[in-house]
Amino acid sequence: MQGIMESIQTLCSGDHGNEGFMQDDEDEEEENGVGRLTSWAELLGFGLAVFSEAIAPQLQCFCDRTLGFAVGQGGSREAWIKAVAMAMSLVRKAVKKGWVGALAPAARVMSQALSTASEPITLDIPVPFKAHKVETPSVTVETSAQELTNFFKTMFIMRRMEIAADSLYKSKFIRGFCHLYDGQEAVCVGMEAALNDKDCIITAYRDHCTHLGRGGSVLEVFAELMGRKDGCSLGKGGSMHMYNKKGGFYGGNGIVGAQTPLGAGLAFAQKYLKVEGVTLAMYGDGAANQGQLFEAMNISALWNLPVIYVCENNHYGMGTAEWRSAKSPEYYKRGDYIPGLKVDGMDCLAVKQAVKYAKEYALQNGPMVLEMDTYRYHGHSMSDPGSTYRTRDEISGVRQERDPIERIRKLLLSNNIATVAELKTMEKEAKKEVEDALSKAKESPSPDSDELFTHVYRKGYGAKAYGADRKEVVVKLP
Amino acid sequence: MVRRRFSFGLVSRLSSPIYGRSPCSGGIWTPCLGQKRSFMTAKDLVESEEPEKKVTNRINMFSAINQALHTVLDSDPKSYVFGEDVGFGGVFRCTTALRDKFGRHRVFNTPLCEQAIVGFGIGLASMGNRAIAEIQFADYIFPALDQIVNEAAKYRYRSGNLFNCGGLTVRAPYGAVGHGGHYHSQSPEAFFCHVPGIKVVIPRSPSQAKGLLLASIRDPNPVVFFEPKWLYRLAVEEVPVDDYTLPLSSAEVMRKGSDITLVGWGAQLAIMEEACDEVSKLGISCELIDLRTLIPWDKELVEDSVNKTGRLLAPVTGGFGAEIAASITNSCFLRLQAPVSRVCGLDTPFPLVFEPFYMPTKNKIVDAIKASVNF
């Protein structure tokens, strides 16, 4: 049902690319293909096809076969036939463009959507889990065509967004610090598939895509990056401080490792209020050596808090490789008395499975550590070229073999969920969405200068801020 | 600008309970508790003391600091440089080529753990080594605050001089750069300025940075050395190539004046100089003092200057201006012709896009000078 609504939406918006019964040669057909019809039989088939597209999806297959049969015959009175066919194709175009609303064609998509959207597909995760003091979850994961398509779309949008942020930074629209997440999209997308809005996420500064996953919009992210009013933190936070209250996303934290004890606190609140949700406290391989992480792990294990510590191991803490900074780079075992799992972080389905498993565990038994084996293509931040401490071959090797978006693409194609052309369409849509958001964000104004003084303290508590000369009260803090 | 050149030589290990001996004292070091010092006041400024012609190089601040570190590691085999990412040269290139020249056992990276970096440095120093710890940004120094305040500062005192960690120097880039945001722009020097037992040193230029860093490392007290990151590349100067130290706890008069005294440190001095130039067109003559060492600070020099001019302005942010203001008001009360004023950042967290409004800019300083002079 959702598939049909999506298709209708897509069509009514005008972007639908190469759908239709003459799939790949759509445009050619408009010019040349119609001329191929040289017999009444063909014309009849053509007419029936148009009719079927406009009216009934179920006639699609029948008309395909009819047309196929008709084309096999020869014919005459070509010019006349061509003219009629041209008229009919015009009608079809009009209908196709969605002017008749809900009867818009692209029956193929609709029928496909009907038949395969939520049917469960079982797939096996190629890279096995590694476990520490706990059983591994099953490598067989249940998913659906719709879920995989959503994975693809979301990750593609995230990828485009990060690349756009890269060029924005280079053209000085974004200043300050910008830490990009491309390559690691599978982690946040896979996580979201296993979570709901009762769960909380808190992460470090590489948070643009996590924000998106928790319900933020691309416009909010771009505006916040550029320090504009429409940003999620009103332009006052910047790249490293994105938050979403409704989505339970607690940021967005600059100091490495400082967010992990906060995560323990969030989990305590959830447990106390019986919310049936977990907190995912995310951190990186660099932060895994911070003392406060171990303090947080100790108290969450002591009090059985429903917190999942997610270590996004991209193997480099800024410029330092994991083997040079950690005695034990097996971060899933670092919890010691806390059980852990090592997950292939470039595989959405593995991440989804692991988080689902960890959520069930955490709600019953207390904390768990998940190590996501992932990789970032960009450097640590925009001032880091990313190639002084690792070879370009390594980066391109990972991109070729383990890229999360390519993996989902292969799954979609091999399971016949989507065709190459449909995927291209989705990519085009995603690009357009990102570009639209970008241009809108560029138009957004800077925050007012009064905002400098707001939100220092709670509103109305009468605190005063003194100005530069310390003599006069500049403003009573709002 | 007069530079006093002090050769290193043997530093006596005789020490008073808290502060130890400074290489710059000709006689007995006295803690800055009101006793008279015998050198370097505004009155004693002898302009005829020209330093002999030295070989200099035109370099920027991070290169000057790099040279200083090379010199230390060369001259003392028991000195070590460590911190996050110092191996490849550091994020600001201050430690380039050190590892190649001196080896991985003396120049090494640490994991991401500021508290442990400083704690480890304290331990290393208490065994008689020179431990030069780098904190990547001063904003990250707070996990190490406990170690600095409770361990490093009090070590000599609580052990009755049996042990000390005088060989510890903690280096951290501090200050605003224009786009740093909340966590790459803070000036936390004031948090350390109220802790007896450590010294806080801030240079304003490449030549000052090299001399002060060499002095800080060789000072037998733990020193926190803040480097203005804004000036790393921006400040370029002729810096002597040889080994030289500048005296700690000795402020420097950058320009003489008669109407108002301005006290500052670090990158802010560049802004203050611009402000002084602007008001000199209005006929106001400003005396500009670079404090250089924040604790123990050269109170004498500032007092003498204020006794001459009658007005004081401290356009520096972070909070230490309050200590200067209180001290001077106390000692020069009858001489003051206008209240001591400060020009600081605003009472908000360091903002992201609002940084130009937040900073104590040249115009704000000019306004304050005018207000003080016309009081």
From TrEMBL, chain A:
Residues 154-448 form the Dehydrogenase E1 component domain. One of its GO terms (molecular function) is pyruvate dehydrogenase (acetyl-transferring) activity. It comes from the Eukaryota. One of its GO terms (biological process) is pyruvate decarboxylation to acetyl-CoA. Pfam families: E1_dh (PF00676). SUPFAM superfamilies: Thiamin diphosphate-binding fold (THDP-binding). The keyword Ribosomal protein does not apply. It is an enzyme of class 1 (oxidoreductase). Its EC number is 1.2.4.1. Its cofactor is thiamine diphosphate. Residues 431-452 are annotated as: Disordered. The pyruvate dehydrogenase complex catalyzes the overall conversion of pyruvate to acetyl-CoA and CO(2). It contains multiple copies of three enzymatic components: pyruvate dehydrogenase (E1), dihydrolipoamide acetyltransferase (E2) and lipoamide dehydrogenase (E3). This is Pyruvate dehydrogenase E1 component subunit alpha. It comes from Physcomitrium patens (Spreading-leaved earth moss). The gene is LOC112280645.
TrEMBL record, chain B:
SUPFAM superfamilies: Thiamin diphosphate-binding fold (THDP-binding), TK C-terminal domain-like. The keyword Cell membrane does not apply. It is an enzyme of class 1 (oxidoreductase). Its EC number is 1.2.4.4. Keywords: Oxidoreductase. Gene3D superfamilies: 3.40.50.920, 3.40.50.970. It catalyses: N(6)-[(R)-lipoyl]-L-lysyl-[protein] + 3-methyl-2-oxobutanoate + H(+) = N(6)-[(R)-S(8)-2-methylpropanoyldihydrolipoyl]-L-lysyl-[protein] + CO2. The keyword Oxidoreductase applies. It comes from the Eukaryota. Residues 59-234 form the Transketolase-like pyrimidine-binding domain. GO terms for molecular function: branched-chain 2-oxo acid dehydrogenase activity. Its cofactor is thiamine diphosphate. This is 3-methyl-2-oxobutanoate dehydrogenase (2-methylpropanoyl-transferring).
